Amino acid sequence: MNKDTIVVITQNLDRRQMRKNQYILAVVVSILSFAQGNFMGWISPVLPLLQSKDTPAAFPPIGDEEASWISSVSSLASVLYIPLISYVADKLGRKWAGYLVAAPFVTCWVLVLCADSVVIMYAARCLGGLSAGGAGILVPTFINDVAEDGIRGLLGTFFGLTVNLGTLYSYVAGSYVSYLWFNISCLVVPVAFLVGFFWIPESPLFLLTKGKEQEAKSTLAWLRDGRCTDEEFLRMKMRAEDFVKNKQNKVTLSDITDRGTFRALLICLGIMANASLSGSGSIMAYSVTIFQDSGSTLSPNVSTIIIGAIMVFGGFFSTVVIEKSGRRLLLIAGNITISVCLFLLGLFFYLKNSGSDVHFIQWIPITSLSGFVFCFGCTLGPITFILTTELPSAKARGMVQSVSIIFVSVAMFLITKTFTILSHLMGAYGCFWLYGSVCVLSSVVIYLTVPETKNRSSEDIVSQLNSEQYIMSVISRKHIHTVKSMK
């Protein structure tokens, strides 16, 4: 081992040591997104129990209509909390916003434990939906505030990864733990967040926006293990100044109708619609029911756990593939693969419902759904939210993100609420073929309209969005400007 190699290894070890507290903060804050996934995954193993004759709940078995409201109402409720959490995070700080996100989660699980009527369960799901919407805003924001450039992309994947882990936890615990203890364990998660979050410092970026430079410098020094340089502090101070300037310069109607901003908003809403209309919400909420109806030789709960594990693996895989491959290519490949999985799943249910012998193709449901969640977990799922931060200009970014998240929440409510209705009208196979067709159409639209954002500056992307030859520049993949770092 030569001297240069030893120096490189030493530098890497020093860099990892400097980043230790950033990882600690990201893990603690991501307990909220774990709680979000936990809340979202809870419905899959519990819904069949609530509909069974031997329901463990303190109220009578529920029907399909009540089940559809329990599954979907949380998505609608999340819309109400997103503007409040955004406001509190900017005005009072990320810490206050964190407490406000966690509080409804705690109340939600207390109500679930005490529910003696389906109305109380609706109320619990609404409260949990508030927290789920707030977590989607706060966790990425807080992590983005504190992460240094070299690991911002990696720490940014913590949100999606911990949501998937929380969902997997619900699939496993909901299958093997009693209804009572499963709900108690769900309550423990937001309580654990509150305990850990108490010791986490305020975001240095927020502190700088309030003129608290000394406190911000101390926090940044803690995050960098005491090795914060004047240059890095100056860069964060400039970020804070830009943030304040963008907040003071309110987004006006003329800003929204600006060619680049309008295109960025349309693209983000289109990608959000793509992710929602792929049926991801319905499939994850009704996965146990889907496996029950398929007549698979594997138990529905075991099949769902396998799906959850693959979803987590897809999240891990996304941390590698997103930075190595282009966003646009992954979106197109993901949509095409997801559509194949949905068409196969629809074919299976069509043959089964028509009376054909499907014994020799019983592997299709588990294989198709595994492919679906893996591809969604490493393409549509994370990239959808990445693009809302990369496409808009700094001034319009907050507006585009808020509108996009509200849009996807309403869309997820409608898709999940109407799944049972559509299943009765056109059969489960019709639903899957409809979702698959949307993905095929989306891959064409993405090819024609979504620019590549990997390794490009915000200015370069905005310049391309404003171009009169925008469609041709996307198809030809010729950027309007070349980023200096890529030369």
Give an overview of the whole structure:
With 487 residues, the protein is mainly alpha-helical. The protein folds into 2 domains: 1-200, Growth Hormone, Chain: A, CATH 1.20.1250.20; 255-487, Growth Hormone, Chain: A (Up-down Bundle). 81% of the residues lie in helices and 0% in strands. The chain has 22 helices and no strands. Residues 3-14 and 479-487 have low confidence and may be disordered.
List keywords for this structure.
single chain; 487 residues; mainly alpha; Growth Hormone, Chain: A; 22 helices; disordered N terminus; disordered C terminus
Topology, please?
Elements: H1 3-18, H2 20-51, H3 64-91, H4 94-114, H5 118-146, H6 149-156, H7 158-176, H8 179-197, H9 204-209, H10 213-223, H11 230-248, H12 253-256, H13 259-277, H14 280-285, H15 287-294, H16 300-324, H17 327-353, H18 363-378, H19 380-390, H20 394-449, H21 458-465, H22 470-476
Gross morphology is globular
Strand portion: under 5%
Quaternary structure classification: single chain
Tally of structural domains: 2
Distance between the termini: 33 Å
Task: Tell me the number of strands.
Answer: 0
The named CATH superfamily of the largest domain: MFS general substrate transporter like domains
